[in-house]
Amino acid sequence: MTILDGKQTSAQIKEELRVEVEERKRKGLKVPHLAAILVGEDGASMTYVNSKVKSCKAIGYDSTLIRLDSAISEEKLLETIDELNDNTDIDGFIVQLPLPKHIDEQKVIERVHPEKDVDGFHPENFGRMALGLPTFIPATPNGIMELLRRYEVPTEGKSCIVIGRSHIVGLPMSILMGLNDVPGNCTVTLTHSRTKNLKEICQNADILIVALGKPEFVTGEMVKEGAVVIDVGITRVPDETKKSGFRLLGDVHYDSVAPRTSFITPVPGGVGPMTIASLLQNTLKAVKRKE
Ligand code: NAP
Q1: Residue 101 in 3-state DSSP?
Q2: 28-124 and 139-272 share one CATH topology?
Q3: Across the chain, what does the average pLDDT equal?
Q4: 68: which strand partners?
Q5: Best of 42, 121, 169, 282 to mutate for ligand 1, by most ligand atoms within 8 A of CB?
Q6: What are the residue numbers of the active site?
Q7: What pLDDT, on a 0 to 100 scale, did the predictor assign at position 43?
Q8: Could you tell me the pTM of the whole model?
Q9: Using CA positions, which residue lies closest to atom 4 of ligand 1?
Q10: Domain boundaries defined on the chain
């Protein structure tokens, strides 16, 4: 069993990016600039955005964090997005999700200019991804593809089961794994909360990608011997022994599943760090597209 080490791989990608930025500086080329909008004070969202900003600094990107009150109107948020769309120094930006209930997330996603949509959530970019055209691929699926690529995990002709059909993880993951590409060329089944016989379906998976947000949902008896298991789930569960007061659990019951697998991502240190590395890669792509 090989652990797909997202922490180490993302550190490697960040180092590659740092070197490239240094090279760009030497040549007088533009330094990538990523901006993030954070609405409200959700603990997990604050942690994610802070680590995105910190990673930018570490590799020499410019970064801007715009914090808005949770009571901000939808109109005001859309105006802020327009400002970032028009700001020529900012190459790409993200609006950290989820947003407060009074704001229409889809409207927000569609307001971000596709050329600055480094999260890859805009329908235009999503459509391009589905067609296998050059675009920004959403950070989490892109990070998973990068892990599979760098560890040379065989995917061609394999049966791939994805649990969860969210627009940010499960759905794009199912599309990417079915494309005629490497990694890719899988026979894909996309499952969700209405799927019947999920356990039996999972037992047939050569590659199982789990993104439903239910801690330790997938257990050993659901996994075929030798399968590749990608655990996207991150749930904070209270833990008094930790300084933070919580620990992170994946959607996979690691202890019963890992011994059966050929490759597996741990939580934490698997998919999570890859997501940030992908966002940074997309931001560099945004700058290069304009050159
Ligand atoms: P989401 O939007 O809540 O979607 C969950 C999906 O799981 C839905 O499609 C839902 O089906 C399906 N589902 C729920 N219960 C199910 C069940 N019992 N059996 C089968 N399918 C079921 O979640 P998400 O945003 O994709 O996130 C999923 C997990 O990944 C969360 O733990 C999240 O924190 C984590 N995540 C991690 C990263 C990272 O960087 N590592 C990034 C994003 C998300 P329906 O469509 O039928 O409701």
Answers
A1: coil
A2: yes
A3: 97
A4: 39
A5: 169
A6: 52, 96, 119
A7: 87
A8: 0.97
A9: 166
A10: 28-124, 139-272
